[in-house]
Amino acid sequence: MDLHFTDAEVTADEKAAVDGVSIPANANGTRRSYLLPILHALQNHIGWISPGALNYASRALDVPPAEAFGVADFYGLFSTRPQPPAVAHICDDIACKAKGAEKLCSELEKSHGPEGSSKDGETWRRSPCLGLCEHAPAALVHSAGKQHFEQSLASAKTESIRTALQGTAVPQPALAASVPQLGQPGLKLLRRIAQINPESLDDYRATGGFVALRRAFAIGPGAVVREVVESKLVGRGGAAFPCGQKWTSILTAARPRYLVCNADESEPGTFKDRVLMEGDPYAVIESMIIAAFATGCEQGYLYIRGEYPLARRRLEHAIRECRIRSFLGDNILGHGVRFDIELRVGAGAYICGEETAMLNSIEGHRGEPRNKPPFPTQVGLFGQPTIIQNVETLLNVPYIIMEGGKAFAAVGTERSTGTKLFCLSGHVAKPGVYEVPFGTTLRQLLNLAGGVGGSGKLQAVLIGGAAGAFLGSKDLDTPLTFEGTRAAGATLGSAVVMPFDDTVDLRQILLRIASFFRDESCGQCVPCRVGTVRQEEILHRLAAGKPLGSRPNELVLLKEVGQAMRDASICGLGQTASSAIESALARLPVFEDKR
Amino acid sequence: MSTQNAPDMKTPVPRGPLPILPPPRPRRMVEISIDGKAVSVPEGSTLLQAARSIGIDTPTLCFLENLTPVNVCRICVVEVEGSRMLVPACSRQAEPGMVVKTDSERVRLSRRLVLELLASSVDVSTAPQFQEYMKRYGAQPERFGDAARPAGNRDAAQPGHHHAPENGNAATVAQPVKIDNDLYVRDYGKCILCYKCVEACGVDAQNTFAIAVAGRGFTARISTEYDAPLTDSACVYCGNCIGVCPTGALMFKSEYVMRRAGTWDESKQTRADTICPYCGVGCTLTLQVQDEKIVKVTSPLDQQITNGHLCIKGRFGWEWVNKK
Ligand SMILES: Cc1cc2nc3c(=O)[nH]c(=O)nc-3n(C[C@H](O)[C@H](O)[C@H](O)COP(=O)(O)O)c2cc1C
Ligand code: SF4
Ligand code: SF4
Ligand code: SF4
Ligand code: FES
Ligand code: FES
């Protein structure tokens, strides 16, 4: 391309950061997909993405600098302006808000000044959910430099944040603390978590690892797809689409085909995929190999959110080991099967969890969802047929291969088969990830988790995340299945179960949800880009007791905005941006004139 | 810029497409129903084309015949039986048996809301078509309350962060006009983010890629890299972005200056087509003339050489004609 550049020059350090990202010689048509890794390298090593560095990167990838800037400026974790090298991202999202996040923020404001201001090379910022909700309040600290330092802080305290900002590691709770059912019989997806060394391939093999892969090779791709169809497995990422139907639909499609594992997990209150990846990384890889073998994909991408440094390191390690031991590569275990995985790291954008936005993000474009149809199985990554599957969905596949689709389908209900992971946080006695058969009711699950925490008096439960719905204490016997939650006017979403006790000001929670959608809208379509802003403003007026006209008037306005977002938005973000808020207004006495 | 003498541009020519392409291969027909009427359209037609073929005027903001549909404004949405959401008519292809409603309550509500959301956040005073749509759908943007104070430098917003709304007032995209060259101005307080200029500057016409969308959410905006002035950017001043902008956010400097001075008067303007005299390509120019002076140059969308797009000479070369 004949590109034009401004005069801004690259520094030697920036050049080294960009050149440090290796681009395969045969990248050709996929060259631009190295933009995201290069931007990460600059952010991590330099602390921001400067005009000179961007020019250099754009030249290397043959991308117009205006477009590269549009990409860099899309992500919350990148900075296109100079900023202090050490940044603390403080989660003030719903679970953390209920557990003291505001106190942390005001303490930081005292010591460091308002959000974004710079003091001694340090700054802090509020952040949406960091996926550590079971240990709320949470934080993530980055310190840029040649020795880039990053650390998640679970149960963050002002002290631990200060220590991490100085570049000193702070000990973190063991993974066992996230799995209250640890050691109990009957666990499938969770059975290895905190029981094996997640870095050891031998531990993995000693606990049944790669047996399913060998069996898949033995029975052949057709039989694998058949078992998955019979299992009636549906996607765990939120959209609940039948997995077998997706796989079947790609079997006659053109090649090459791609497999993408969706590990972006950014729905507020969700952390199950993080626990799986931190505790059982080889299982993620084995599941991807089986899926790729069954559907004829030779290249995989694993897209993990940037806020999960530990999970990322474990997966990087596991991928390296698997290559060495011939579980990945041109001839897997001598079976003539070719498959490899590239890791892609997100950079602070909830929308990139939407499957088509994820494809754009991998390709080095802005994470804007694509219009459907065509669906990714027809036109996906680099324009080729693509299967996209959530981490938890994939981890069911080895079990389906081992026990058979029929046996898998025998667990749970007719339409929700198998076991399900739930993310319990907020006011619950024992927060963490729980695995239960589908059909378990909300009450049973809360009891399993030790009951309502905090004051012990339940006010409401958020189900399914910010894109989900609130249930009240009357709804506790709702079965937590896809069909059961739907019948209750809710959605299972990403299996968030977040109770709030009666001391929580639900108005603040609703305002935070509204603010989340406004921040995370990609900005492409009008109903969502402006609708999420107007929704937040209406809630602010209601919360302040200063409605425009009258309260009923505001409620009509809110409803109309909600309907336009649901009906006319391009993707699921806009389509669900009003659902939790509307459910709260319908079921709970929020914003009612008590005075 | 060169100082060569401008050739005479005022030679009128007949308007219309040049007969150069052979007639297209006949395509299979698809039968659908729109608002209760049976419609038959060639395979691959969009619902917008189908609706237009029976005289239904579907509003569009981000669609233009000579650009790839981006389907972002959502004003063209229609109801398709069996589909949970409304679908954008401008890009959704007709499938056999589709039952489409283009004027149901649901459709009207979404269209009205799109207009209200935009008009409450963007200055649409120089967008006549937009205002006509507002009348048609009874849009009342003032329902969202007073405009909030302008939000500081929109080009410096950090994605994923915003300040809590002040008094619950309606946030807008109001900002200072960008005037950094002699040919055209960028008044992004009037931008509805239809992506048309980006498409025209990119693969759909100009292949220059001087501008792109930056930021995210409500702070998403059209920008050069790091908001560099156009004079430092890749811009070649073809003006194709101005030609496609539906709101006057991109405006000839001449028009901008005249509007500021209060001398812009469309009732006194005439339009005449001519062939651009600068080179052998033969682009059709539509000259907009007021008080014996060319004030603006466009090219007809249905012109097969230009598809509505021009280069700097055709678009701005008249500046020398006026100076003669
Ligand atoms: C705004 C938005 C965010 C999403 N985030 C995620 C996510 O973080 N992880 C995920 O697996 N799916 C997410 N999804 C759902 C994906 O689009 C897609 O349906 C899913 O990855 C398919 O995999 P599955 O069938 O295995 O669930 C999201 C969808 C939307 C609309
Ligand atoms: S609904 Fe929101 S997030 Fe989705 S495409 Fe539209 S603006 Fe982007
Ligand atoms: S004038 Fe032409 S080159 Fe310049 S921004 Fe507009 S379309 Fe791009
Ligand atoms: S400047 Fe004009 S053409 Fe470009 S996005 Fe804004 S409104 Fe559309
Ligand atoms: S980590 Fe704070 S809400 Fe999830
Ligand atoms: S005209 Fe169809 S979405 Fe804009």
Molecular structure report:
The complex is a heterodimer of chains A (595) and B (324). The mean pLDDT of chain A is 96. A five-stranded mixed beta sheet of chain A has the order 10-9-13-11-12, sandwiched between helices. Chain A has 595 residues and is of the alpha/beta class. Chain A contains 24 helices and 13 strands. Chain B has 324 residues and is α+β, with helices and mostly antiparallel strands. Chain B folds into three domains: 29-103, Ubiquitin-like (UB roll); 149-263, 2-Layer Sandwich (Alpha-Beta Plaits), CATH 3.30.70.20; 265-324, ADC-like domains (N-terminal domain of TfIIb), CATH 2.20.25.90. Helix content of chain B is 19%, strand content 16%. Chain B has eight helices and twelve strands. The structure holds flavin mononucleotide, iron/sulfur cluster (3 copies) and FE2/S2 (inorganic) cluster (2 copies).
Please outline the helices and strands.
The complex is a heterodimer of chains A (595) and B (324).
Chain A: H1 12-19, H2 35-46, H3 51-61, H4 65-72, E1 86-91, H5 94-97, H6 101-112, E2 122-127, E3 139-143, E4 149-153, H7 158-165, H8 201-206, H9 211-219, H10 221-231, H11 243-250, E5 258-263, H12 272-279, H13 281-295, E6 299-304, H14 309-324, E7 340-345, H15 355-362, E8 386-390, H16 391-403, H17 405-410, E9 419-424, E10 432-437, H18 442-448, E11 458-463, E12 469-471, H19 482-487, E13 496-501, H20 506-520, H21 526-543, H22 551-568, H23 572-576, H24 579-587
Parallel strand pairs in A: 1-2, 5-6, 5-8, 6-7, 9-13
Antiparallel strand pairs in A: 1-3, 3-4, 9-10, 11-12, 11-13
Chain B: E1 29-34, E2 37-42, H1 47-53, E3 77-80, E4 87-88, E5 99-101, H2 105-119, H3 128-137, E6 184-186, H4 196-201, E7 212-214, E8 221-223, H5 240-244, E9 250-252, H6 253-261, E10 269-275, E11 284-290, E12 293-298, H7 312-316, H8 318-323
Parallel strand pairs in B: 1-5
Antiparallel strand pairs in B: 1-2, 3-4, 3-5, 6-9, 7-8, 10-11, 11-12
Helix pairs in contact in B: 2-3
The complex binds flavin mononucleotide (FMN), iron/sulfur cluster (3 copies) and FE2/S2 (inorganic) cluster (2 copies).
The site of one iron/sulfur cluster has 13 residues of chain B, from helix 4 and helix 5.
